[in-house]
Amino acid sequence: MQFGIFTVGDVTPDPTNGRTPSEHERIKAMVAIALKAEEVGLDVLATGEHHNPPFVPSSPTTMLGYIAARTEKLILSTSTTLITTNDPVKIAEDYAMLQHLSDGRVDLMLGRGNTGPVYPWFGQDIRQGINLAKENYALLRRLWREDVVDWEGTFRTPLQAFTSTPRPLDGLPPFVWHGSIRSPEIAEQAAFYGDGFFHFFHNNIFWPADHTRRMVQLYRRRFAHHGHGRPEDAVVGLGGQAFMRKNSQDAVREFRPYFDNAPVYGHGPSLEDFTEQTPLTVGSPQQVIERTLSFRESVGDYQRQLFLMDHAGLPLKTVLEQLDILGEEVVPVLRREFAKGRPADVPEAPTHTSPRAVREVSTA
């Protein structure tokens, strides 16, 4: 399995002192967090894509390219690449370029985003969200897999004898995860193409575990239906969120003001209700370990687990402390425990040189 972190890049006031970091400070903090992730032995860093305040990561490939130059092992990914409002030609070019710069340490998670106004900002209609996701991804796949593309669709101008450059590194397109808030159509899309399905932060953090279980089961069934193998061969990723201190009471006391004022879930359910109903875990490292291990009971053996660690105005110093705990006390135990009883034929986590990627290019 792969373990890592993701960020949504929010610029949020620290509720304990009222200070709001500047955009510059937040961007630099995200880089520091990425470097810390590699230092403590995590596998993946994923960034969101947003085009509105209070978020700063409007250009994921710019940030990931900079991080690529300063890291050696970290897999660079996205927690949302907007397949609906980005031009698939530009996605094909940008992520292939990032592949080359990072020596293959890149994949991406496609999503429709959670900000309705982003559609007209980029000349699209939110009512066409699902259709945009389907058509744009169909074109993106062809751009990465065919040297010359002739194409005509509904939402952009036709292409005639078009070649996307640079070509994917070693002829291997980046691995694609499909993330969904609530739409079974996206789980079906991932299954149809045999791609990965990521039940990410808007689901697996803010939705009950039973919803996650049903969506992943749907994806696994349809993956097998489309002839890609057994349901157990499907590639699944989950998002989670944790805040830890040695003593659980200290963790709850320290995190409560951040939770209560968070831009997404603040001023809603209590911290206690939210942690009971969703995978948010606030407590000791052992509690995070036990909660994360329980995810396998709902979705089966899966390939990637990411944690949100820097949301809601937490200061950088605190986030770096959390990463030390995650990397030193939590992830080593998770690696060992998830490996126990894991069937040998469960697919490994995707990488540029994994057998899954090589098999795809050999049959393209």
Q: Can you walk me through this structure?
A:
The chain has helices at 23-39, 60-70, 88-102, 118-121, 129-145, 184-193, 201-205, 209-225, 248-260, 271-277, 285-293, 295-299, 316-339, 355-363; strands at 2-7, 44-47, 75-78, 81-82, 107-111, 149-151, 159-162, 175-179, 196-199, 236-244, 280-283, 304-308. The relative contact order is 0.15. The chain starts with a strand and ends with a helix. The chain has 14 helices and twelve strands. It is globular and about 60 Å long. Strands 1, 2, 3, 4, 5, 8, 9, 10, 11 and 12 form a ten-stranded parallel beta sheet that branches. A two-stranded antiparallel sheet has the order 6-7. Helix 6 runs parallel beside helix 8 (209-225). With 364 residues, the protein is an alpha/beta fold. Helices cover 45% and strands 15% of the residues.
